[in-house]
Design a protein that fits this description.
Number of domains: 2
Helix content: 55-70%
Number of strands: 3
Distance between the termini: 65 Å
CATH topology of the largest domain: hpI Integrase, Chain A
Strand content: under 5%
Order of helices and strands: HHHHHHHEEEHHHHHH
CATH class of the largest domain: Mainly Alpha
CATH architecture of the largest domain: Orthogonal Bundle
Radius of gyration: 23 Å
Strand order of the largest sheet: 1-2-3
Number of helices: 13
Amino acid sequence: MKGQLEAYCAHLRNERQVSVHTQLGYRRDLDKVLEYCASQGIGSWNDLQVQQLRQLVARQHHHGQSSRSLARLLSAVRGLYRYLNREGHCQHDPANGLSPPKGERRLPKTLDTDRALQLLDGGVDDDFIARRDHAILELFYSSGLRLSELTSLDLDQLDLAAGLVQVHGKGSKTRVLPVGRKAREALEQWLRLRGISAPLDKAVFVSRQGRRLGPRAIQLRVQTAGERELGQHLHPHMLRHSFASHLLESSQDLRAVQEMLGHADIATTQIYTHLDFQHLAAVYDSAHPRAKRSKGSDS
């Protein structure tokens, strides 16, 4: 079983080319399934059945695993069994039809518009680190990039003259996003200084040693900016949430925001942008041709 799991992980890495973050998450989840199988005397992936996987999910839930974490575990299992079935090792999927226990949907934390401006509109020193970090913040907020998308960004993906950036998102899907004026200016100022480090590759964001900044380094730079400018914890996804929320508040175009965020399911976009019912009702009343009752209606 372990050998087939190793082969699947290599498939994710080499053929699917999923992000390192996704690889690690899937491996952690599938290791839990492997440990469970060992504890139950299950010696083959073909022997794992629906009721046994359901028992594992229930056990993990009892020990405090969130609904979201269990959904990811089931997704990892489905991916593994798609691979095993394709390779002829199995003829079933024990995760088929299973869903995680329903959990409370937590609204994402965002910055309000004033706080976002406070973060971005302060003075910026004209040096390597300050210009780079400011460009990172502006691009996150301008275009709603995921951390993995910004980390992997190369120079040839930027078209500042046209105000566009091309990103490679989840599932190797590519999308082209607008880059706002302030973000373009910040990137132009950063790129003038980028060459000081003698960069080792085409990465947009590099260290003083010329190496591509990794996810953890970018998280720390964003966190430092949040503590310095706002006196609060700040992480890249909060800037992505804020981008989506502020854009939707102004445009009321859920589909456009979905496309920009790269969500396959519009329900995910609704969670990100935390539309409340009153707002939806107001939009419906003002826009739908059959929403309002006639003035002469008695009921």
